[in-house]
Design goal:
The structure holds two protein chains of two kinds. The two termini of chain A are about 35 Å apart. Chain A has a domain at about 5-95 and about 165-245: 3-Layer(aba) Sandwich (Rossmann fold), CATH 3.40.50. Chain A is globular. In chain A, the strands form two sheets. A six-stranded mixed β-sheet of chain A has the order 6-7-8-3-9-10, sandwiched between helices. A four-stranded antiparallel β-sheet of chain A has the order 2-1-4-5, with helices on one face. Chain A has helices at about 45-50, 75-80, 100-110, 115-130, 145-155, 175-190, 200-205, 225-230, 235-245; strands at about 5-15, 20-30, 35-40, 60-65, 70, 85, 160-165, 195, 210-215, 220-225. Chain A is of the alpha/beta class. Chain B is an all-alpha fold. Chain B has two domains: about 1-45; about 70-285, MetI-like fold, CATH 1.10.3720. Chain B is built from eleven helices and no strands. Chain B has helices at about 5-50, 55-65, 65-105, 115-130, 130-145, 155-180, 185-190, 195-210, 215-225, 240-250, 255-285. The longest helix of chain B is centred in the N-terminal third of the chain and has 46 residues, at about 5-50. Chain B is flat, with a radius of gyration of 28 Å. Classes of the chains: A alpha/beta, B mainly alpha. Chains A and B meet through strand 6 and helix 3 of A and helix 7 and helix 8 of B.
């Protein structure tokens, strides 16, 4: 908006009881850019995204959205969440609603968009992401890849300022990963600002403008994908990438 | 046994084997049916013989299964049963609302509701812990004894209130079980799309919770339909009361059988409904 970052994370610290999960995270995501946070399971990636979407309360530091602090105690959390979209690893679609109603619920109830308008946009988006004809189905009748695309459309439908993607391919069978990544690529091409937690290094390399390596709740290394992935400086990063390489995940 | 012959012979062999297997399956199924029929005849016939040959049977037949007494008492009992049905429907609706409100209060995390939460928890503990018949007595005789203006004194209303309080506590816990069984990710997703806590409950959590608790709720309906007879201790002329009066004036207990049959006419269809709803939900989750 003013040339500053859309999302700015400053010194964010979060503990669950005695266990500190995030120690002073600094990160920024500029408009139309995608930042990928990589790191082993349990490194704090999901917690970071949940803190940004105010599903977890941070202990210290600040998060700014379009230059406004959103993590102060007095901030209206519902209003902030309406400006962000979060996609979960396990899709978390609403099983009692049709695919279309999953997409419309937020627009109609949270954003007060007239149902007819919301439905027009919802149907168009579902069509664009290869889900035409599935509008009336229940989420359970869809494949994992289709469900995750519905979840993407649901998060994207009310035009968020930024999308937070939490391991969106980790629960998918390998042959379904491609279709979801394709959908993310398309959102990126459209200029969506994104903060992505991922295991998919090839995807991070391709889509992300910057990569941050999270290890034990600290960002040890960050920069352009080529630098972090091809010539990592820190031994922890090197070890992490080597393990992925050995496991055939790169 | 383990002969591997040329292709044609193998195919024929497979065909033979299929026929043999089908014949064996049919034999097994016929034998199963025969055994089931025979064992039914033995068990049910044995029970019937036991009752019919018991020394007191002629007297029991005359005092419990007298067609004459049945015909005489049935219209009166049926009229009384109509009161049971009306009361059941009204109390059930009150219970559904009361139970839902109590469950929502108990599951809400709002600090302002803390005293209400405490009250709701105490309500569930106390009213589930008191025998329903005792509660009907306490409410039915206790509230009029207060002699406060504006409080109802009609025993049907008081009996209904007692039943609603008792069943409301059970149903609140059924709803609450449903609400807490909805995965936390559903609430997260609802908040993430911008809903408020209240909207998340209303549009996402509660609809799923209510679907899950359909069978246990219907189970409580059946129980309530029977317990409506408890208001008879306060005096209203409902089916059981009328049957009891008939029985004690004629020394014939057939009217009680008539009342029992009327209850079954409602509770058995409800039970089948529970089965169907239960199966439906099982089928949905796959």
């Amino acid at each position: 908006m003013n040339g500053g970052p859309v999302l700015e994370i400053r010194g964010v610290t979060k503990a669950f009881g005695e266990r500190e999960v995030l120690h002073g995270i600094d990160l920024e995501v500029f408009e139309h850019k995608a930042v990928a946070v990589i790191g082993a399971s349990g490194s704090g990636k999901s917690t970071l995204l949940r803190c940004v979407d105010l599903l977890e309360e941070i202990d210290d530091g600040d998060v700014f959205l379009d230059g406004e602090v959103i993590t102060d105690p007095g901030v209206d959390t519902v209003a902030v969440r309406r400006r962000l979209g979060l996609v979960f690893q396990a899709y978390n679609l609403f099983p009692h609603l049709s695919v279309l109603d999953n997409v419309l619920l937020g627009s109609v109830r949270a954003h007060d968009i007239p149902r007819a308008d919301a439905e027009e946009r919802g149907r168009a988006l579902l069509g664009r992401f290869g889900l035409a004809g599935r509008e009336g189905d229940r989420p359970d009748d869809l494949s994992g890849g289709q469900q995750q695309r519905v979840a993407l459309v649901r998060a994207f439908a009310s035009r968020p300022r930024a999308l937070l993607l939490d391991e969106v391919t980790s629960a998918l069978d390998p042959e379904l990963v491609g279709e979801v990544l394709e959908a993310v690529r398309e959102l990126k091409a459209e200029g969506m600002t994104m903060l992505i937690a991922t295991h998919e290094m090839s995807f991070a390399r391709e889509v992300a403008d910057a990569i941050a390596f999270l290890h034990d709740g600290r960002i040890l290394e960050s920069g352009p994908p080529e630098r972090v992935l091809s010539s990592p400086q820190r031994p922890e990063t090197q070890r992490f990438l080597r393990r992925l390489l050995e496991a055939g995940r790169m | 046994m383990d002969e591997r012959s040329s292709g044609g012979a193998a195919a024929r062999l497979t065909g033979d084997r299929r026929a043999a297997r089908e014949a064996a399956r049919a034999r097994r199924s016929r034998r199963g049916q025969a055994i089931a029929a025979a064992s039914s005849v033995v068990v049910l016939g044995g029970l019937a013989a036991l009752v019919l040959t018991s020394p007191g049977w002629p007297e029991v037949r005359d005092t419990f299964f007298s067609w004459e007494a049945f015909k005489d008492s049935f219209p009166g009992v049926l009229e009384g049963f109509w009161l049971d049905v009306k009361l059941f429907v009204i109390v059930e609706l009150a219970v559904l609302v009361l139970g839902l409100v109590v469950a929502l209060v108990r599951t809400s995390g709002a600090p302002a509701l803390f005293p209400l939460r405490l009250l709701a928890a105490a309500y569930c503990d106390i009213f589930r812990g008191i025998p329903t018949i005792l509660l009907v007595y306490l409410v039915g005789f206790g509230i009029p004894a207060l002699q406060l203006a504006g409080l109802p004194t009609d025993p049907v209303v008081l009996g209904g209130v007692a039943l609603a309080l008792s069943y409301g506590a059970y149903v609140a816990e059924v709803y609450r079980a449903g609400i807490v069984s909805v995965h936390r990710g559903q609430r997260d997703a609802a908040l993430a799309i911008g809903l408020t806590e209240g909207q998340a409950m209303r549009y996402v959590i509660l609809p799923q919770a209510v679907r899950r608790v359909g069978p246990p709720l219907l189970n409580d309906f059946i129980s309530l339909q029977k317990d409506v007879a408890l208001i008879s201790i306060l005096g209203p002329q409902e089916a059981f009361r009328i049957a009891q009066i008939d029985a004690s004036s004629t020394f014939n207990y057939t009217p009680l059988i008539a009342a029992a049959l009327l209850y079954l006419c409602v509770t058995v269809p409800l039970a089948r409904l529970v089965d169907r709803v239960g199966l439906g939900i099982g089928g949905q989750t796959r």
